[in-house]
Amino acid sequence: MQTKVLKFGGSSLADAKQFRRVAEIVRTEPSRRYVVASAPGKRFSEDTKVTDMLYDCYHLAAEKKSIDGAFAKIEERYNQIISELGLDFSLQDEFDKIKMSILHHAGRDYIASRGEYLNSMILAEYLGYDFIDAENCIFFFENGVFDSEKTNEATAEILSRHERAVIPGFYGVMPNGTIKTFSRGGSDITGSIVARAVNAGIYENWTDVSGMLMADPRLIDSPKTIDVITYKELRELAYMGATVLHEDAIFPVMEAKIPINIRNTNKPEASGTLIVPTVENDTGSSVVTGIAGKVGFSTITIEKGQMNKVSFISEVLQCLTRHKINIEHVPTGIDTISVVVPTDQLKGKEEEVFASIRRHVSPDAITLNDSIALIAVVGRKMVKSTGTAGRVFKAIGSAGVNIKMIDQGSSELNIIVAVDEKEYITALKAIYSEFVK
Length: 437
Fold this sequence. Notes:
This protein is an alpha/beta fold. The protein has helices spanning 16-28, 50-62, 68-85, 92-103, 108-127, 148-159, 187-197, 231-239, 250-256, 310-322, 343-346, 350-361, 388-398, 424-435; strands spanning 4-8, 32-37, 130-131, 165-168, 171-173, 179-181, 202-207, 228-230, 260-264, 273-276, 290-303, 336-342, 365-378, 405-408, 414-420. The protein has 14 helices and 15 strands. Strands 3-4-2-1-7-9-10-8 form an eight-stranded mixed beta sheet, sandwiched between helices. Strands 12-11-13-15-14 form a five-stranded antiparallel beta sheet. A two-stranded antiparallel ribbon has the order 5-6.
């Protein structure tokens, strides 16, 4: 029986009703031995996440204002869960310690991490599982970078002594003993870390959606669920923001080739999306796995005869790097290069950047286009399917949209097109309609 690791998001553990659903899911299969928990999320649309409530307390204390009222609401939230679950269990000592730490200006990461810490203690009590504090097994280097190997060794050793356990997500510890958090949504990473450490057969990531969708449901009506997606495809779509999983959560399980299953706590019968290293004997009908896009880009187009000299492109990119501007894509021609950059990073620096480029490479011309949207069409079958690019371009053209740039990765896993932001949704819908009948 292969071990399963489960991570439950904030919406899955927002209140006692959700705790009961989680417990039912965990107890359904004996192989579900290790659970990673998030802090309580929103119970309804106007609600506040506990992590945000803790951040509010931190800011109040920093401004030397009373935190009594704000912290009482946090205590009430947890006590309501405990009471409605019928547990003979108290967090009062923990509340007192956390409140005192806030008043004594403990670090922001420590305070934010207490949401997961407290929720995991309740879940462990409710399930009858052991509680393992993440600060005992998840480590960071002094520069704040995650220490993968030390963490894997320590987590594997600790969990080998516990048949079943709940581990808080989102945080670990620095070499000096202070708490360090991952970025928001970092409980996904903790789940992946635990899955690798115990060599799990599968990592189940439970959230409030039934898997990944082929397109943004805010822009496309009822997009299809992706049944199976590879790590590489997920990375391509995640770059455009199309994921229900923290992008860094892929790496620990990718090393160990452990599949991830995105599941819906409120619809446990749905199979969700399976994320795998590779797909053998792929029988799916769709050439395209997913379509995603983002707005807010600019293109800097530089013209110069004999641009193919060794140092030219390097000098251009270094000019942008020195101004701390991320380089997203660099399609080139014989005598032109277009660099796609985030508009917000370039804004206010245009003249300075252009002057630097002129000084270093003496271009014949530089032009700037703002209000650019990028659309990524991703699919593992594209490399073996003739005419996929043509279908993409035809769909966009038939919708009356002008393509400003085309970029295809060397793996032929994706095609990225740039269009005017005003035509972004039209183009996205046209591509989706072409490949999803």
